[in-house]
């Protein structure tokens, strides 16, 4: 039975992209450990995490690369998003410049990345409603226009953090199912889970 379960684990490389101080690391920390640190140090280069989600009778193991937002690390980004099954592009709803930067990341992924990559746009810091500068309507319209799905998140209050990863898992599994029916495409291949991780039950 253990071997049968092992075969159902789908490995998915996921990368987080976005400007510095948008809360990428906080989103990952909230998702993986259920924690929030008020003053998170900036990521240097990239940080690696893994987390497993149970979705119906299938399990998705996310191998998460949290990339640094500083411009000096930009040249390293392709090393992390190359071959990624999914990407979360994060901006800060209180800072329009980070939304502009997010759009540039989307363009870069669309031109350089894998055509099968599941892309999500996350408007983080949704708890700071009084300081909002980017409307949900504007971001939603952009996401629809560019083939992404959009959610506003708050790593601080946990709003939509698990939900965005759950939605990615669902879309990833759908893409895998389509890939099995159309083997001429390309998508991240499965491989057995090797590291032990906590397993979260996905939202319905």
UniProtKB/TrEMBL annotation:
Residues 194-204 have a biased composition (Polar residues). It holds the Pfam family Ras. One of its GO terms (molecular function) is GTP binding. SMART domains: RAB (SM00175), RAN (SM00176), RAS (SM00173), RHO (SM00174). Signal peptide: none annotated. It is a lipid-anchor. Its main location: membrane. NCBIfam families: small_GTP. This is Ras-related protein RABF2b.
